[in-house]
């Protein structure tokens, strides 16, 4: 059929029928500088099955891509691996148009689709480890609770050795290229790391357990098809290996120094700390918050060993940008970091102490007391900043 949007063939019997969101730049606080895709897949089994849908405004694009392969009314089953709105936001409307024989979700997915999207009835729960016959093919479901919602599950299509991995192994990257081997490796590794750092990092212990379970089950699918970004047909083992590394959160000698500044005093302290870090053998990344997005700070922390945070004191408080990044990072629960707080002040000087309090709540191992400098730092004060950097570097060896 002649349709405005067309499907992309993934294997003999699986097609990508998702949508490309070239415009999105903010995904609830995460800077999606390269846009994203909402991936859905059509399985041409005896029972024709749609895996996931797309964000509501992209429903027509989904239906058009399906129609480029077959009449959407021929779909027998829909599987909802994840009830977040970027994958289920148009599920109710699609169910109304397609009128599938059955719709499947995890037990928690049935609950979430009811409570969150108000889809009442008509959805069958599948159990962890259970299989669904599609006639000549079989889907096997594995629950992945809290990766990253309670309802999350993944589905293995044994006959194609293909894993529908839902958000897992995904990334926010808009492109017409559908496969990992069509996208420069430095781009997909960078975007996959950003996705992990900003979405999955808090659940790293669960990811390590899942990877262990996958190993015990002997699963190493030839193709991994996530719900965002490219399909892995060349490097499925490589992305799984990266997840193992990121989930382990082994500290390196990289030190992230993030800060804001009022009159450049806290900024020059940051630069002196950075020089001290480098002199001590660490690899500093200075991230001034006037030009660094919180989600990029989170990405840099993914493989760091230290987090050092600075702020001037404004009205007895830390700067709003510093409070923002700390709130965000605290939620992501990074592990195995050392850290420190610093800042210039005029009179009250509360900000570095407040920062140190948050870093302590984050279980970051603090090096020294909060470093405060009154007004513009002189050479002596900057020497103290440099010494702090060197001391932190020594902790990273
Ligand atoms: Fe892509 Fe958790 O949604």
Give the topology, please.
Elements: E1 8-11, E2 14-16, E3 19-21, E4 26-27, E5 30-31, E6 36-38, E7 41-43, E8 49-51, H1 59-67, E9 77-80, H2 85-88, H3 91-98, E10 102-106, H4 107-115, E11 123-126, E12 131-133, E13 138-143, E14 153-157, E15 162-166, H5 185-200, H6 204-216, E16 223-226, H7 236-248, E17 254-259, H8 265-279, E18 283-288, H9 294-301, E19 306-310, E20 313-314, E21 317-318, H10 320-332, E22 338-345, H11 351-361, E23 365-366, E24 371-374, H12 379-395
Parallel strand pairs: 8-9, 9-10, 10-11, 15-16, 17-18, 17-19, 19-22, 22-23, 22-24
Antiparallel strand pairs: 1-2, 2-7, 3-6, 4-5, 7-8, 12-13, 13-14, 14-15, 20-21
The chain binds MU-OXO-diiron (FEO).
Structure in words:
The chain has 397 residues and is of the alpha/beta class. The protein folds into 2 domains: 8-247, Ribonuclease Z/Hydroxyacylglutathione hydrolase-like (Metallo-beta-lactamase, Chain A); 254-395, Flavodoxin domain (Rossmann fold), CATH 3.40.50. It has 12 helices and 24 strands. A 7-stranded mixed sheet has the order 1-2-7-8-9-10-11. Helix 1 links the parallel strand 8 and strand 9. The longest helix is centred in the last third of the chain and has 17 residues, at 379-395. The protein is elongated, with a radius of gyration of 24 Å. The mean pLDDT is 97. The protein binds MU-OXO-diiron.
